[in-house]
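note to self — DONT lose this again. spent like an hour looking for the file last time. sequence + predicted structure for the chain T wanted, 172 res
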Amino acid sequence: MMTFYYALGWAPSLVVALGFDPSQATIVSVFMNSGGAIGGLTLGLLSPRLGLRPLVIFSLAGAAAAVAVFGAVPPQLVVLQLAAFILGFLSNGSVVGLYALIANVYPTTLRATGTGAVIGFGRFGAAFGPFAAGQLLAAGAGRGTTSLLLALGSGIAALVLLASRIRPSDEN
């Protein structure tokens, strides 16, 4: 959530800081959100065939890489739009997949409570990501360093999920 909300919240400001006008930055956000919608849909369509957990791990790792790349791409509008689309595709796909994965882990009697607790905990990351980015940028860290550091949220989540033994609940 930290990585996702950093990208979603700061992308327009980062594009403006590169010298583009706010309307062009908005177009970059449209590309990111379009990628997100298609990424969530794609993950949903592929998960019955490829498995939800591997797709979420792939999406999380890809989102980490995409955030780092978005922080390093040259200030060319078409390149930023393409990077934003890929970033949205992977980061939103991973968030959608995490919600579905979490719901499948808990038995029916605990599903609402467990899922709500996990989503509530994720709100801390959602608040921390944009805040941390603001602090880093204000301290002069720059777009590349800030993006690389905020990519760690998705990267660590991918590693934790890869190393965990989280499996869907046997109870339907």
